């Protein structure tokens, strides 16, 4: 399995492409604002064709690139069911300060269709198996996405767990108690590489040993 990444300019979101060994098909993880040019360059260089987009959660910085990405690659979008409403009016799902900042970016927003994903649900796409693990706390519908290629596994943690930190819980839909439970769930996962929504990659064992929130 190969994991490639590019960064969206707005809030420095990691946008990933994942392929199974020997495959020219891939899946995309998250779709930050203005990520399409970087993705197009990356996929062209690697000879990859997307087959689906998975969103770790519905915050605007992770979804606002969908319009341009879907204009280039017409593929299905998957999002945690509890975050579906965030696709409808992205700027209104955060606090007023963020809403004002986002207003120019969503002036022409048309909410894309999305396939709901729920806890424990699996998809076989592009030679990969993607399993959703519910991890609310940052948002109601945040998901840890376990991606397997045979015996090899990686986890996309979105804004639940970062290298050395966790996602904030003070925005609308955030819940400290739910986050605490999600961290307990994370601690039960196998020791594999993790790829967060922001910042560098890490491993489950590294975070359990060094992240002050565990």
Automatic annotation (TrEMBL):
The record's section on SUPFAM superfamilies has:
Metallo-hydrolase/oxidoreductase (SSF56281)
Instruction: Read off the Pfam families from this record.
Output: Lactamase_B (PF00753)
Q: Where is the Metallo-beta-lactamase domain?
A: 12-198
Instruction: Answer yes or no on keyword Hydrolase.
Output: yes
Give the highest taxon in the source lineage: Bacteria
For this protein, the record's SMART domains field holds:
Lactamase_B (SM00849)
**UniProt keyword annotation of Metal-binding present:** yes
InterPro entries on file: MBL_Glyoxalase_II, Metallo-B-lactamas, RibonucZ/Hydroxyglut_hydro
**Family annotation (Gene3D superfamilies):** Ribonuclease Z/Hydroxyacylglutathione hydrolase-like
Keywords (alphabetical) are: Hydrolase, Metal-binding, Zinc
Q: So which cofactors does this thing need?
A: Zn(2+)
Q: What is this protein called?
A: MBL fold metallo-hydrolase
Origin organism lineage: Bacteria, Bacillati, Actinomycetota, Actinomycetes, Micrococcales
